[in-house]
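User: Sequence recovery, please. Input:
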């Protein structure tokens, strides 16, 4: 929309008259979808065209943070805790437009001061978002790096294991256990021998037997999203430390990090969740099973909140500060230490795009709450503001 580009440029350089301002307001009101990615692109293009030297760094910061924090952060009163909104997933209407305008102004005034504060940590710039890489390991010690940037197809042919149709591990794999793992700061997508696709999150791993074709069983540590190929003659089982999930063909996400409750979120189909003490429940799409110490509960959720990481964004829904920072630790491969005076009752709701630099995300957290950050000896120290 050339007209939007023109008016937006005038608004941002301060030459927009009252009639043009109302026209801009009307365009955004009638086209709320423009508020997200399209507006991000238009902001970037407008500034690059008009002020390529003077304001380039400033606008880069505005554009990045526009994707993290389009809504001015407001504490939401709750019993004994506060939830800070970092990003509203469905920004629509006049209020959203007001907030975008005020947010741009807010950043342009305060950016330099707070960028300098974060830059004092120096080496914070070395912590980049997760990249696509993994390691395939056999239980006899043989291994191969998987970092092609594309989905790796694992297949078994006789006693040989093939990756994308090629035999990359010499020797027989009969009766071997195959493990695919991601370190902190990485993720990977793999297609199993039956055609099922697995998105492996950071600091996670799956293991399965080389006899996978006859018994579709996978062990999971960490988090993964499964798109299971339908096969009524062979059930597909995912085992974690605290439970197992049985399916025939479906799509679901399991978060099973050792220090967090196990969450099984169903997107499509049906799954059965079982615990070692023989408790079991059957999920329907849009339901989530939460396993706390083998106590299963079901709740209705927006499954996209728990699977959007496979599409390039991490969402936080009333996330306690310690759990949120655990996720940040895994995604950016950085150790985190939370001071004792940081209240654990603080929760955050928001959205983080996968490519967002750590420094930018910390800026948003710092601006939206009463916590601050310091990088010390390659460890992120989290404190309350003084």
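Assistant: Recovered sequence (386 residues):
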């Amino acid at each position: 929309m050339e007209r939007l580009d023109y008016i937006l440029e005038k608004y941002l350089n301060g030459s927009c008259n009252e009639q043009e301002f109302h026209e801009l307001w009307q365009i955004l009101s009638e086209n709320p979808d423009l508020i997200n990615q399209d507006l991000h692109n238009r902001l970037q293009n407008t500034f690059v065209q008009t002020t390529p030297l003077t304001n380039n760094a400033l606008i880069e910061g505005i554009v990045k943070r526009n994707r993290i924090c389009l809504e001015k952060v407001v504490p939401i009163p709750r019993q004994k805790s506060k939830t800070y909104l970092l990003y509203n997933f469905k920004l629509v209407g006049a209020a959203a437009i007001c907030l975008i305008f005020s947010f741009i102004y807010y950043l342009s005034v305060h950016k330099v001061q707070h960028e300098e504060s974060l830059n004092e940590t120096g080496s914070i710039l070395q912590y980049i978002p997760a990249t696509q890489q993994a390691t395939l390991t056999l239980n006899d010690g043989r291994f191969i790096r998987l970092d092609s940037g594309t989905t790796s197809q694992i297949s078994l042919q006789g006693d040989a294991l093939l990756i994308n149709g090629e035999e990359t591990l010499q020797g027989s794999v009969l009766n071997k256990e195959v493990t695919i793992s991601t370190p902190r700061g990485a993720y990977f997508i793999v297609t199993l021998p039956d055609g099922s696709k697995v998105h492996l999150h950071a600091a996670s791993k799956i293991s399965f037997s080389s006899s996978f074709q006859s018994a579709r069983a996978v062990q999971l540590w960490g988090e993964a999203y499964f798109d299971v190929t339908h096969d009524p003659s062979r059930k597909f089982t995912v085992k974690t430390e605290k439970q197992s999930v049985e399916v025939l063909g479906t799509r679901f996400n399991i978060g099973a990090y050792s220090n967090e409750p196990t969450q099984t979120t169903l997107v499509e189909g049906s799954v059965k969740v079982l615990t070692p003490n023989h408790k079991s429940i059957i999920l329907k799409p849009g339901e989530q099973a939460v396993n706390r110490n083998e106590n299963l509960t079901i709740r209705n959720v927006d499954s996209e909140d728990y699977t959007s990481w496979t599409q390039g964004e991490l969402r936080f829904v009333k996330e306690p500060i310690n759990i949120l920072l655990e996720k940040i630790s895994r995604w950016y491969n950085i150790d985190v230490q939370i001071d004792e005076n940081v209240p654990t009752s603080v929760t955050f709701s928001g959205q983080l795009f996968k490519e967002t630099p750590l420094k930018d995300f910390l800026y948003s957290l710092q601006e939206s709450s009463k916590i601050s950050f310091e990088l010390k000896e390659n460890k992120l120290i989290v404190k309350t503001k003084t």
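The chain has three domains: 2-71+92-117, 123-128+312-384, 131-306.
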